[in-house]
Amino acid sequence: MKLFGTAGIRGTLWEKVTPELAMNIGRAMGTYIDGDTVAVARDGRTSSVMLQSALISGLLSTGKEVLDFGLIPTPALAWGTRKYADGGVMITASHNPPTDNGIKVFNGDGTEFYVEQEGELEGLVFSRNFRKAEWDEIKGLKSLDIRDEYIGTVLDFVNHETNLTVLYDGANGAGSVVAPYLLREMGAKVISVNAHIDGHFPGRKPEPRYENIAYLGELARTLGVDLVIAQDGDADRIAVFDEKGQYVNEDALIALFAKLYVEENGGGTVVVSIDTGSRIDHVVEEAGGKVVRIPLGQPHDGIKKYGAIFAAEPWKLVHPKFGPWIDSFVTMGLLIKLIDERGKPLSQIIREEIPTYYLTKKNVKCPDELKKAILERVHRILEERLGDEIKEVLTISGYRFQLKDGSWVLVRPSGTEPKIRVVVEAPSEKRRDELFELAYSVVAKEVEKLKQSAQA
Fold first, then answer.
1. Same structural domain for residues 193 and 259?
2. Collapsed DSSP state (helix, strand, coil) of residue 392
3. What is the mean pLDDT of residues 307-326?
4. Per-residue pLDDT at 454 exceeds 80
5. Domain boundary among 189, 217, 241
6. pLDDT tens across 112-148, in order?
7. pTM given for the model
8. Are 190 and 160 in contact (CB under 8 A)?
9. Is residue 337 part of a domain?
10. Residue 254: CATH number of its domain
11. What tens digit of pLDDT does each residue of 22-59 get?
């Protein structure tokens, strides 16, 4: 059994994520981490206090001192771990539905565990070879509110004051305890929606995909704001609308920051996930930099391996000069600074600086146990159907078919949910639609076939 997916441990409460698992992760972390102190925090899900309490018990049983940061966003936990602890654990299922919960683990420098470390931690959980502290070695639990200090550190890093009007959507998640205050301290006029903590996520689904936040476009136009920022349940992800209420494609946002960092550094390597698009390559190479693609969930691995000056996945941006973790608060601060320094609205900046490509993403529901077989069948079928159009096939996180006309098709398994993700990008809308219809229909048909076979 594998516990870790592409972003920590996640799953349905009681089916995969249980108090027993949380306690054993605590015991494993306490055994694994060098040093005396482990920081813990949680998101606003209904089960997070329960799971955090179990995790803390496990940590204490190994003789670790535990710092409880309370309900804070994941980027703040990473920052606080680097400053105050030798390791960190976040109770969160990020953008998953409210029925789920999860656990993310961090090193003392704020990086999420590397792949090999996850494997070692899993080994401890399954072997149950935990350290057991003697009665006089058991340390205490301390509560520490780091929100104001974290906000101050982000403000110092961004170093900018603004008078923009910003519409903020917190998804009823943990970002709501930081983002409105950070934006206000920058001088922005802040209008907030879904900014009260509620583990039922009554305002919208916590994943900031366009279909879940499309209403923000009309709201932006009605209110006349300069920028819209939306986060997910634990506030590592960020989605953006411009002043016209137009959704900013995730790749366009990544390309904008990649271009900025490469220009500032006079070159350098940018690391992005396998499901990102060609506009990033275009602007990075034009600015004298290099793009390297890596598996989902491993931007920190990529930074370490390639010495990257910037790393990103869709909605998730890492700013290594600030810290080696995904941080939407640094992203929002730097984006506001960029808009002000360019002296242009965001729509104009993107239109003038980022080329247009056409991309579509959609998921096909697929039981976890069928994913491997589905991918193998889909790989064979698409390789045959695309034929001579294929330039190369990348086998990172599924299969990405690079085509000779600059288009690409990606079919990959979700690492956190029972889904197969289909992503297609092309230089024209017509070409994109043709390729997407092909790829999506192949995946959907093969999933249905295997499901029926399994039920027979």
1. no
2. strand
3. 96
4. no
5. 241
6. 999 899 999 999 999 999 999 999 999 999 999 999 9
7. 0.89
8. no
9. no
10. 3.40.120.10
11. 999 999 999 999 999 999 999 999 999 999 999 999 99
- Same domain, yes or no: 386 and 271: no
Q: What angle do CA 355, 359, 361 make, to 5 degrees?
A: 150
Inter-residue contact 405 to 377 (CB < 8 Å): no
Same domain membership, residue 130 and residue 21? yes
> Between helices 429-455 and 371-386, what is the axis angle to 10°?
140
CA distances from 153 to 185, 232, 333, 426 (A): 12, 22, 12, 40
What sign does the CA torsion over 250, 261, 173, 419 have?
A: positive
Which of 201, 220, 241 marks a domain boundary? Answer: 241
Q: Residue 211 is part of which domain span? A: 148-241
199, 208 contact by CB (below 8 A): no
Instruction: Find the angle CA(291)-CA(293)-CA(298) to the nearest 5 degrees.
Output: 125
Active-site residues: which are they? 94
What proportion of the chain, given as a percentage, has pLDDT over 90?
88
| pLDDT score at 135 | 95
> 307 burial class (0-12, 13-18, 19+ CB within 10 angstroms)?
exposed
Question: Do residue 13 and residue 104 come from a single domain?
Answer: yes
- Residue 139: other Cβ atoms inside 10 A: 15
**Domains in the chain, number:** 4
Q: How many Cα neighbours within 13 Å face the side chain of 34? A: 1
Question: Would the pLDDT of 456 be above 80?
Answer: no
Residue 229 has which token pair?
């920022």
